[in-house]
Amino acid sequence: MTPFASPHRLRLDGNALVANWRLLDAMSGPAACGAAVKADGYGLGATAVAERLAAAGCRDFFVATWAEAAALAPLTLPVAVLHGVRAEDMAAALAGFARPVLNTAAQIARWRDSGGGWCDVMIDTGMNRLGVSVEQVCAGLLDGLTIDTLMSHLACADSDEAMNRRQRDALAGLAGRTNARRLSLANSAGIGLGGDYAFDLTRPGLALYGGVPRAELAGIAQVVTPQAQVLQRRRVAAGDTVGYNATWRAVRDTDVAIVNLGYADGYFRGFSDRGTARVGGSALPVLGRVSMDLIALDVGAAPGLGEGDWVAFDFALPAAAALSGMSQYELLTGLGARYDRIWA
Ligand SMILES: *Cc1c(COP(=O)(O)O)cnc(C)c1O
């Protein structure tokens, strides 16, 4: 956090975060429930997220890179690095604060040759993103590795595609083919597909943070609320315009507040003329274009609102994604570095 109080902050609901993990854990049945905390905990702050989930009982954390794993090292939690080991990662990987998820034959050879210990392995079951093939596994590529978790990743778990079942069956077919302790497939949406998809360990990210990728996850609670301070309040006369390209024109005299938030903070331009903020019970519609650092709000419903007062933006992720045209993932990971992050 900077030494200056920021003019915008994220209100982060730690109870909702933990309740979401507990719900996903319960929906995972007998499988363990981990947490994807890559991209700085989807923008919330990976350390703060991991501390809270570890206290609730979570024992498996997933990041993308070794820099992200190093940032979590002081917490001494079990962390797996999804992108595996490049040559330049080996010093970090052998330091022992996280284990790699090996994705390619070259990564497997590098890890085996280094005498590395526990690892995970990613199997490509049809997404054609990361991982080795089922055929490579059956040909013995993993022989001699000490594998904690053999995992795969679902390409379309947020919709009902035949591909989900095909990917699930491909991973299930590897049971007993390696010495892996565990199998793992489901991300947040995959948990919603049901117990067949949970295997031994689930790996939710999005839903921990309030994302709802499938109707089965409707019980997920909002975690993040952006708030911003009013910088200036003005009366805009009928016929005058507000903001870049003068896209909003007042049809009557309108009370407008300019607040300290913009697309550089992840409040994207898709919210132009569509988003709303709130103070007390009153809705304050966004007027005109969202700027890089500023937004105009119609504050006619809040006569007492003035310079220095705070407003809260409506940011329930399914609705905010539909409104802005961004994905729920982009809305979370776009939250910038300028916010003070305040956990309650
Ligand atoms: C990001 C990621 C997850 C978490 O996915 P969500 O859709 O955010 O729940 C799980 N597994 C892998 C391999 C990932 O890359």
Descriptive notes:
The protein has about 350 residues and is α/β, with parallel strands linked by helices. The protein contains eleven helices and 20 strands. The protein has helices spanning about 15-25, 40, 45-55, 65-70, 90-95, 105-115, 135-140, 160-170, 190, 315-325, 330-335, and strands spanning about 10, 30-35, 35, 60-65, 80, 100, 120-125, 130-135, 145-150, 180-185, 200, 225-235, 240, 250, 255-260, 275-280, 280-285, 295-300, 310-315, 340-344. The strands form four sheets. Strands 3, 4, 5, 6, 7, 8, 9 and 10 form an eight-stranded parallel beta sheet that branches. Strands 12-15-18-17-16-19 form a six-stranded antiparallel β-barrel. Strands 2-11 form a two-stranded parallel ribbon. A hairpin with a 7-residue loop joins strand 17 and strand 18. Helix 1 (about 15-25) packs across helix 3 (about 45-55). The longest helix is centred in the N-terminal third of the chain and has 14 residues, at about 15-25. The two termini are about 15 Å apart. The mean pLDDT is about 95. Pyridoxal-5'-phosphate binds near residues 82 and 187.
